[in-house]
Input
Amino acid sequence: MSEAWLGRCLCGAVHYAARGAVLAQLVCHCRDCQRASGAAGVPVVVVNAADFSFDGAIKAYTKTGGSGMPTTRHFCPECGSLLFGTPHHAPHIVTIYAGTLDDPARFEAEFVQFTGERHRLDAHDAAIPQHAGRAP
Output
C-alpha cells in the first residue's frame, strides 16, 4: 500500500486521509473551481471514496457543474477552507483539493482540464517578476 495522503484545513479543525492508490492528479481551470477557490485553477488529487476518511465537522455546498451533473464541495465551517469534493457523476471517487495537503510537494499533475476557461489569474508567465517570499 502506498503512503497515505494526509491534509487539513487552515485552522486544523478538519483532518483527512486517503489511504489507497491515487486515481489521477490534475489541475482544473473550470469556472466553478475558480469561483469556489478564488484562484486561477485547482490542483486536485482523485482517490477512491472507500479509501478516504475525515475527522471534524464539515459543511457542504452542491451545484451543477460543467459536466451537467451536481458536485458537492466540502469545506471547514470554521475557517472556510475548501477541502474535497464528491462529484455525483462518479460517486466512487473523492477529489482532494491539493492545496490542503500536509505535503503538497507530492502533487504531480498528470493533465490540465478546462484550459479554455483559464484566465490571466494564472500568473506563471516568466516575464512577470517572481519572488520566492513576499514581494518587496
About this structure: The longest helix spans residues 31-37.
